[in-house]
């Protein structure tokens, strides 16, 4: 396997850390980067030692969008023939372990869409989110119109997508796009600490919790509650659930076996 050119990959305990690394283009998402990113995410998903994944960029940019220079000469026939976006740009959605986006600087266009494909976003106080595609004569093409609207509501999403304006970390937290805002210098440590906590719990239970929350985007309330109930009841088949509840009753820390 050749060394990746556009990403840096490392492990921090039980957390897989992927850093987008195209600083000269503010981590613009070119096809080659997306292929490397997909491979790294799948590798961590298959690694039993890893319980959570952190995806981040540089201090200046998480990702400034899809690579405009790579797209500018493509025509309708090209993007349809290649099923651009649909063909391999949604690998994040196939990852079963929690993927935490740690965003500093610009997360624009596909960069914001990539962050929203992750399970949660931790933002540095320098983060700026936006879907400026309209300034280029296109609309968001990797879920931005759907996920941003579900995350922040129609009016704010519509304003951002129709004007291309950015929103800073404080507004993103108020709007519910990000879970927390931290000082930029603490972003990676905070995201890894969060990942370590998640990785300390029962892996199948973490996977079921992630599936249940994500289902809220995809189903009616009744269907989502039904799925949640089935997954909750499934936990009672796991030794980890027995251990977790016994540990509480015996006033000791649980030792989960499925980690
Ligand atoms: C593995 C599976 C994962 C699946 C995830 C899939 C994610 C989605 C990916 C596909 C998405 C396609 C659909 C998407 O909705 C479409 C888009 O994203 S369109 C692009 C939207 N982004 C933008 O419009 C932002 C463009 N950039 C800027 O406005 C500015 O660069 C900035 C961010 C405001 C910063 O400005 P400055 O500080 O002045 O810096 P520069 O402008 O000088 O930039 C420095 C350098 O970087 C190059 N660059 C910046 N952004 C891009 C880009 N998007 N594409 C290509 N290159 C970019 C810029 O040209 C400079 O380079 P130089 O000229 O010096 O060579």
From TrEMBL:
<dbReference type="GO" id="GO:0006635">
    <property type="term" value="P:fatty acid beta-oxidation"/>
</dbReference>
<dbReference type="GO" id="GO:0004300">
    <property type="term" value="F:enoyl-CoA hydratase activity"/>
</dbReference>
<dbReference type="InterPro" id="IPR001753">
    <property type="entry name" value="Enoyl-CoA_hydra/iso"/>
</dbReference>
<comment type="similarity">
    <text>Belongs to the enoyl-CoA hydratase/isomerase family.</text>
</comment>
<keyword id="KW-0276">Fatty acid metabolism</keyword>
<keyword id="KW-0456">Lyase</keyword>
<keyword id="KW-0443">Lipid metabolism</keyword>
<protein>
    <recommendedName>
        <fullName>enoyl-CoA hydratase</fullName>
        <ecNumber>4.2.1.17</ecNumber>
    </recommendedName>
</protein>
<dbReference type="InterPro" id="IPR018376">
    <property type="entry name" value="Enoyl-CoA_hyd/isom_CS"/>
</dbReference>
<dbReference type="Pfam" id="PF00378">
    <property type="entry name" value="ECH_1"/>
</dbReference>
<comment type="function">
    <text>Could possibly oxidize fatty acids using specific components.</text>
</comment>
